[in-house]
Batch of 2 targets.
Target 1
Amino acid sequence: MADHPIPRPFIDAPLKGLQRLGYSPAQLLSHAGLVADCLADPDATLTATDYTRLMDSFWRLTNDELMGLYPTPSHYGTFAMMCKAIISCSTLGHALHRGRRFYQLFNGVPGIEISQDGQTTRIELQMHSELDPDHFLSESLLVIWHRLSSWLVGQGIPLLSVGCAYPAPPHAALYQDLFATPVRFNQTATYLLIPRTCLALPVSQTPASLRAFLRHSPADLLARPTPHESTTGRIRQLFRRYDIAELPDLATSAALLGISGATLRRRLHEEQTSFQKLKDECRLQEASLRLARQDSSIREIADYLGYTETSTFHRAFRKWIGLTPGEYRLQQRRGHYDNQE
């Protein structure tokens, strides 16, 4: 596992749950074998390895895999038992449905529902988002179900989109690294959207590989980079190397990926998107970052992104994130002030 840094919002949120359960950060750091003052600096982060140790110790110390962030605890070992129940399944769809039934055995804990619509499958969290004010539990469950599914079939499951039944949090810009796919806020549910064909993928793991997997899971699932290996994900990664005004065109992008333009179009179509949609998404992600920084007017941001009319930028941004640029900027400003208190 690469030792990339884990951003501070994903550290501070579980520590709040820890204190609700009656434990101190010092107790947790000692249990995890980490230096007592490693988080004293409010800007300090943890390596992926240390974060895995921290979260694994959290669950062992508190006996709650929901980290004190939900009214009903899920005792340590529940996730492992669910994995043992699904490892003998033949396909990913079979495993997800069995996992859904497993968590239905426990009253009051978050579960999932699985639905299909045309060429897509939606994995929807069944939980009360108002009980998760920092959204860390929602983020964690989305990540765990996606990473677990990818591990089961031995390949990255393409994420077509992610929906969140809450407004964009102050750290919304980090969601791109977390999911590498469009994230829509203020939705009616919190969900992952994947290609329907993925449900037929065979489970390639075995009870033996599961034993090794469970030595550090689900803690290390939260620390792993996204396994999203679709063509959509590769295009997004490619765009991130360029300034927004210099994004490569389709022919150049295809050549950089070592495929033809026609193949690139076909693969993106199979993943329910298009090259132009990904370009627009990249522009709007840049817009969210510039709006959060508060140092440019909305008109200036629209001009920089190539919108000839501010009203067109307003409509595009609202469609993408569920808020107007002004509403999003105000929300980010409030979140900044809240974090200073």
Note: The longest helix spans residues 275-293.
Target 2
Amino acid sequence: MINNISISNMEAKAKEFNEVIQEQYYPWFAQYMVMKRASIEPNFHDLYLKFFDKVNSKSLNKEILKATYENCKFRGALLAKNLGSWLGKFTIGRNQALRAKEIDPKSLIVEAYEKGLMIVVIPFTSKILEPCQSSIAYRPPNPWTMGILSLLAEIYNLPNLKMNLKFDIEVLFKNLTVDILMELVNVTKFFQMPKYLLPAHVCHWCGTWKGDKICSSCKKARYCSEKHQALHWRTGHKNDCLQIISSSAASNSVLPTIGKVPANTSWPEFEIKIDYEGIFDSNSGDENNSKLLVMQRHGKPDAMMQSWMDQFEADSDNKCWTSFQERVSRAPNQVLRYCREPNAKPL
């Protein structure tokens, strides 16, 4: 089925997939797609992503993302680069969040610098960031993206850096239309900071407190207390610890491990959802039109809304407040709003 997928027969193949593959086999299929296809066929990544869009299964996408995160650990240089490209397209390229507790590019780069693993991690993270160019949420000047680019610019400026790594960084900056020379001027000197100024490691169990205690076996997992270390050990770190130790001794152990935060007390993650909210004319001089628009969005107004509407006057300050209230009411849980239109005004 997968061998014969093409643009022309994608609709038929997606229908065939939904008829043949039951949901209970999604974990197996996800492992197959990640390791037998995505990791060795980078030229077909876009085709496979379009196929999954046609299949339109949230549970399948979840399993594929889970398999991708799991297989990004302990892989060789070529596989890591291909999986980085796949992970970036599957998350950032779709305006979905890249989970920091699974793969944190900044932490990877810092750990690779300390352990001499940049030969693999730099191409890996560069491939993850490539889709930022077409992403609505992640494209520069997104602060998260620029923070990683600043770190890469500092590495680019390191003496005796291998030319192939310099080339990977240059290509990434060019694809994202970011001037690497300007970034070098504003470079943070992160790697030259004293250790007491560097960000503290967090607890691998709760993810919310300083991890100043370290696992004596794997030397990777960190904890804020003995209680959290014991909880983590009983709920899965015992097996992970053995895997980390055995993988560290293997010749293909190139990617540092990033511990997962299993507790429910970790900071919540929210989906990055890009929606067009429409246009609201805050310069309209018609007070009734503004009231009517609010009524249409809310239906029957509650006491607070009715009180606010009764006190409305068509002066500039209150009109600005009207615009703000109407815009926020469209998605009360949304925490960030911005508009890329040339004539946009602050809310």
Note: The two ends are 51 Å apart (CA to CA).
